[in-house]
Each structure stands twice: as structure tokens, then as C-alpha cells.
Design goal:
Helices cover 25% and strands 31% of the residues. The chain contains 3 helices and 10 strands, in the order E-E-E-E-H-E-E-H-E-E-E-E-H. A hairpin with a 7-residue loop joins strand 9 and strand 10. The longest helix has 34 residues.
Length: 191
């Protein structure tokens, strides 16, 4: 079955690249004919480099976790990271060096169900020592033994600013409608 060959594989040490990474396989052909499989390799450092190029703004950071306890990709993950080596392919979440991300699974202050309609995007708010953070992520299965958590976190104050701007815009729009209705009545009386 060609479909059984498709998809991401577990993180391994990629000899040709000399570093940990994953392979992704895709079948070539149509539904009726199988012509072969194409394979691509990507190191965890290349994936992390991609996350680093994302311009998220507002203090947001992207991440990919392998299971709930390993960092698969992060903007700060590089070749010299001390959590990789001696048989360990991925750094441990708790000792990785991102104290905010390390708190992702702590008891949430608030849980956001179905953050984006009709998706499996999850989220929650964690209070920290200095300020709270909002985590938004998707759990992806089928990419190895453990699920991947692909997401972003940002300071809760930034989400509050966005919410406050939406409320202010809604209030301004409501105010404009009220003024327009009053003007219509006033102009209607003078005709």
C-alpha cells in the first residue's frame, strides 16, 4: 500500500547530515499505479532555523514538541545545544533553556476550547512569576511514536491588548451607528 509509506518518520540520527532529524516519505504515482517513493530529510536544526525566520511579532515564539517532554524545534535550538548528544537526539523540555516553554504543561489558569472554529487548535493561559503567557497549539499524530505539539506562545498582555482593541473598535462602531441613527431622526424631523 503506497499510502502506508507516506508521512513523517521518527526522529533518528541522520548519518548523511551528521545530526538528528526526520525523514518524510511520499509516494509517486496515481491511485491505481505505484511508481515509487520519494524521501526527504530535514534536521531538527533546519526546522528550528525555519521557526526562527517566522515574523510572529508581539513577543510570540513558535515551537514544536515531540511528545510532552522533548523539544523538536525551537528558534534557539542550534548545533551546540547541550541537551543533544550522548545518545540523546532531542533536548528535554524542562532543561532546554526556555523557562516559559518549560511551563507549558503546568496547571493552566484558563483553558481555551476550540480556539479556532472547526479545528483542533487548543490553548491555555499559564500564570508566571513575572507575567502570564498564552499557549496555542495543535496535537499532530502519525509523525512517529509520540504526537507533535506545533504551536506558539505569547505574553498574555499582548492578547489582552488585541482583545481591548477589538472591544474599542466595536464600541467605536456602535457609537458611530448610534450617531447616525440620531442624525437620521433629527434630519427627518426637519423635513
Amino acid at each position: 500500500q503506497a499510502k502506508d509509506l507516506e508521512g513523517w518518520r521518527e526522529v533518528v540520527y541522520l548519518e548523511p547530515l551528521g545530526q538528528p532529524g526526520m525523514m518524510v516519505h511520499g509516494s509517486i504515482g496515481s491511485e491505481k499505479t505505484f511508481a515509487g517513493v520519494v524521501t526527504s530529510m530535514i534536521s531538527i536544526f533546519e526546522l528550528s532555523g525555519f521557526l526562527e525566520t517566522l515574523e510572529l511579532g508581539n513577543g510570540a515564539r513558535a515551537f514544536i514538541l515531540h511528545g510532552r517532554d522533548r523539544v523538536l524545534a525551537h528558534p534557539e535550538l542550534d548545533h551546540d545545544h547541550p541537551g543533544i548528544g550522548d545518545g540523546q537526539l532531542l533536548p528535554d523540555l524542562e532543561t532546554f533553556g526556555d523557562p516559559i516553554l518549560a511551563r507549558i504543561w503546568h496547571t493552566p489558569e484558563r483553558i481555551f476550547d476550540q480556539v479556532i472554529s472547526d479545528t483542533n487548535t487548543q490553548g491555555h493561559h499559564i500564570e508566571g512569576e513575572d507575567e502570564g503567557h498564552v499557549f496555542l497549539y495543535r496535537e499532530i499524530f502519525g509523525a512517529g511514536e509520540a504526537p507533535w505539539y506545533v504551536g506558539v506562545y505569547l505574553p498574555a498582555s499582548e492578547t489582552n491588548k488585541t482583545y481591548n482593541r477589538l472591544v474599542a473598535a466595536g464600541a467605536a462602531a456602535g457609537g458611530l451607528i448610534l450617531v447616525a441613527v440620531i442624525l437620521v431622526f433629527m434630519l427627518g424631523r426637519y423635513r
